[in-house]
Amino acid sequence: MIKTAVLLLSLLPAIILAAETTPSKHTKLTLDLVASAAKVSFPGLLAAEQRKQVAAGELTAAEGGFDTLLKSQNRWSIIGLYENQNNDVSLEQPTQFWGTTFFGGWRRGVGDYPIYDGKGVTADGGEARIGVNVPLWRNREIDRRRASLQQAEWGQLIAGHEYEQALIEVTRIASHRYWDWVLAGQRLSVAKQLLQIAEQRDKGIHERVAAGDIPEFEALDNRRAIIERQERVVAAQRLLEQSAIQLSLYWRDEIGQPQLPSDSQLPEQFPATDSIQTLNVNEALKTSLDQRPESKRLELQAKQTQTELELQQNQRAPAVDLTVSAANDIGNSKEKLNRNELYVGLNIDIPLQQRTATGRANVAAANMRRLTLDRQLQDDRIANEVKDVFSALSALRKRLSLSADQLHASEQLAEGEKTRFELGESTLLFVNLREIAKGDAALQYAEATASLFRSYADYQAILGIQAQQDD
Prior knowledge:
Blueprint: H1 2-20, H2 31-41, H3 43-63, E1 69-76, E2 84-94, E3 101-111, E4 127-135, H4 144-210, H5 216-248, H6 281-291, H7 293-315, E5 319-329, E6 340-349, H8 355-422, H9 428-463, H10 465-470
Antiparallel strand pairs: 1-2, 2-3, 3-4, 4-5, 5-6
C-alpha cells in the first residue's frame, strides 16, 4: 500500500500537467493542446527522454574513474618454518591534475621472517606510507579517465540535442495531423451544406412540378443530386474519422493513452493566416544553422572523436612516471626498526610496435573526416530545406489568394444561377453544377489554408524553433 501511494505521488505532477492539457469533449481542440499532450505522453519522445537518462548514467560511470579506491590484503602463515601475519590497507585517489594519482596506506607485519625478507617486518604499530605518482609523458595531458569523462559530458549534451530533434519532429508531425483533421472537418461541413441545400430545395421543386411550372424531370434530377451529395457526406465522414484516429496518436489522455477527438471539438474555421510570420531567407538560414539540433549533435560528436584522437596520439608516447613515496614505522619493535624512509622512482614503459594506439588513432582520424563531411552535407541539406520551405510558403500564399477569389466568384455564380432557376430561366442541372463548383472552391480554399499551416509547421521545424523554446 505504501509503495502504491509513493508511486501515485511521484506520478502526480505528470497527471496534473496532462489533465491541464486535456480539454473536455465540449471545448475546441487547439494545436497547442495537441502539442502539449504529445510532449508529455508520446512514446517516441519518452524514449528520447530515456536516452538522456542513459547519457547521465554514462557520465556518472565516467566520473567513477576518479573514485577513491580502497584495497586490503591480509595474509597469515599458519604452518611452516616461519609463522607470521601481514595486514596491508591502502587508498588510491586518481585526479584530473596531469593524471596525478595520490596513494597512502598502512601495513603491519609481525612474527618470524627469514633474514632476506626483513622488509616485511614492521614496528608493533605498523608502517604508514604516503606517495604520489605523476605521469611525465604518456597520460600527462590526457588519459583514458579524463578522455572518458570529457566524452561523457559531451555525450550528455548530445542526448539533449537528440531529444530536441525528436521533439521538433513530433511537433511537426502532430501539427500536420492536426491540420489534416481540421481540413477533414471543413470538408464534411461543406458536404453537409451542399446536401442541406438540395434537401431544402426538394420540397419546392415537387410543388412546382405539381403546379406544372417545371417538368417532373427536374425533381428526378434533384433526387439524384441528393443521393450524390449523401455519398459525399459519407466519404467526408470517413475521412474525418480517419484523420481523428491519426491525430489520436499524438493527442493523449492523462495516462498516456490515445484519445479520439470528437466532431464537437473541431474548430469552426482555420485561424487567420496573418498569424504566420517568417524571417527573410538569409536570416532563416543563419537561424537554422545555429539552432538545428542535428548540427549541434554533429559538432559535439566531432569533439568526442577529437578527444579520442588526442588520447590515442598520446598513448603512442613512452610512459615515464615519477613516483615519490615516504614511509614511517609506528611504535616500537624488538628489532628497534622505527624507520623513516623516502623513495623516488622513475618507471618507463615504451611500446615498440605501437600498433594498438596507432590503429585506434587512425580510426579516430577517419571518423573525424567522416563527421566533417557529414556536417557539410547537413548544412547543405539545411540550406535546401530553408529554400524549399520559403518557396512552398510563397506559392501557398498565392494559391490561397487565388482560391479566395475563386470562392467569391463561385458563390456569386451559384446565387445568380439559383435566382435564374427560380425565374424559370435556367435548369436544375446548371444550378447543381454551380453549387458543386462552389463547394469545390470552398474545399480548395480550405486545402490551401491547411497546406499553408502545414508548411508553416515545416518552417518552424527547419529553423529549430521548438527546441529553442524548450531550452
